[in-house]
Amino acid sequence: MDGQGMHRPRNVDWRRAGALLYGDWGTSKAYVIGAAFLAAHYASLPIIVAVCVLTALVGYNYTVICAHFPDGGGVYSAARGQSRMVAVIGALMLVANFCVTAALSGWAAMNYFRVPPEYLAPATMGLILIVGAINYFGPKHSGSLAISLAVPMVVVVVLIVLLSLPHLSTANLEPSRSGFGANWTAFVGVILALSGVEAIANLTGVMQLDRGASAGRPMVKKTAGKAILLVAIEVVLGTVLLGWAMLSLPKGLAGMLDERWEDMISVLAEQYGALTFNATVGHYFGLVTGVIVGLLLLSAVNTAVGALIGLIYLLARDGEMPRSFNRLNAHGVPWIPMFIAALLPFVVVAFSPSQLSLMELYAIGVVGAITVNLGSCLLNRSLKLRWYEFLVMAATFVVLLAVEVTIAKTKPNALFFIVCILIVGLSLRSWAQWRAGFRTITVSKEVAAAVSPESFSKFELNLQPGQAIMVAARGLTPVLRFALEEARLRQATLYVLYVKELSVNLPGPLETAERPRWQDDKKAAEIMYGMMELGKKNEVPVIPLYMISENPSGTILDMAATLGVDILMLGASHRHALEKLLKGSVISEVAKNLPDNIQLVIHG
């Protein structure tokens, strides 16, 4: 039992998954419609519609991917079965995406908060450093702000659309005077709303299972499909209607729209509030809209930084990055990935003179990652895609591949950025594998099929008659002595559970032959060796259990129920107030959800 690995509780329902997805997709409206106007002015509606159609297509493809990868369908997890090198390249493209998402969302948030232009870059860099500092504590519910702001954002969008309905017109719309090449380039430059689907694909490993599914045969098709469908409908319809509302404003406002394209939703709220009511109402409606959109963009920065930490840590745990990236601080956050996740967006902002320059860097990472994901799924014969799923996925793959090539051709800064990320990332991977003594070799299919991973030695428990007690240890506390005394008196077996808290949202399941051992954890080893020695002296069977978990309370509950213990013992919490605020109380969660047939003893 001490060889237990990562425990990922399935506690994300379709509502929470949808809200987390909306935290990315929903914010895309904040800059997509303004960017479209900047690119094509009153001929931009077809471009906005085309971007929304592509977004809907990608969303449909990811409902298929999520259905086939219930333990994590992000590019790294999906491509890993085809080629580890391709999977790492896809993951590094996702690193670039999360990096630019954090930088762009922060910059856009400052625009919606109406920070003066000369202070935009310093304010954004300061924000990123603050978010990095907050992630030192590893707040486990980093998406909570996005969830709480999803409803206000939807309300704001609906209100703007309703206020604009009487004024919608085609009078201002102009046909495009450019050729296909110019229109295609403009379309590529406005693709800014895709990274959310990668985020939700990574969440399938922690989504609640569909009814009738089990841990042995997990299915999240309905959970993921419902989340993606509802958000995609709002994003597509909302973006098209807001874009039409923008183009229905009098042409005399074109100069103002050009000047304020970066906070276009606030502009729409101001203008249609004034047209429907008066200038004062429009002014304050615009301010409230800016605050709501800005806060949602702030949450997107935090989500992107947290996702970047989790992705780098996952690569390190799988041996694709240096082992030093695995080291956790006292709050369960990996030190080096946390530093990288704050430093990369900071550097990107430092070298970017405007929001437009950040937008140029954005798409090359996420489009590349999605293209790798779709291509891997198309080549994976074990998925057994239906014919129409295959055709839609293939068509989407071709379009995205063309988009990626176009970005590389027309945006040299984006190409330079992604090449730098790939060179540094693959160099770190080669160095990590050289240090670990790994060597890549090619063998025949028959030889590969005959090789089995190293099996762990089994041991059978010869339990004494009587009850079973489990004690969850956080350190050398009095509850351990009390549990040993109770086990001796009751002639019970004593399970000593040590949960190493990991305050990182992993983008997929771990696939590594090296499972975590308590012998390698200094604090856990001190407890386990001491308890086993005391158990021998007092004739108490002591069984060590070691887990690494993102949710300690859920892990404790699962282990207690799985082992069928009679008594669960916990030590009283001595966390500081700030830590309790960020992470909550383990004892409260356990007490609230513990089955009635298990007694809970809190020793303090």
Put the structure in a nutshell.
The protein is mainly α and 604 residues long.
User: Ranges with pLDDT <50 over ≥5 residues?
Assistant: 1-5, 452-464
- Give the number of domains: 2
Task: Name the shape in a single word.
Answer: elongated
The computed structural class is: mainly alpha
- Return Rg in Å: 26 Å
Total strand segments: 6
Q: Taking all residues together, what is the mean pLDDT?
A: 85
CATH fold-type name of the largest domain: Amino acid/polyamine transporter I
Overall CATH class of the largest domain:
Mainly Alpha
Strand content of the residues, in percent?
5-15%
- C-alpha end-to-end distance: 27 Å
Q: Walk across the major sheet and give the strand order.
A: 1-4-3-2-5-6
Helix content, binned percent: 55-70%
- Assigned CATH architecture of the largest domain: Up-down Bundle
Give a quick account of the main beta sheet: strands, pairing sense, barrel closure.
6 strands, parallel
Tally of helical segments: 22
Order of helices and strands: EHHHHHHHHHHHHHHHHHEHEHEHEHHE
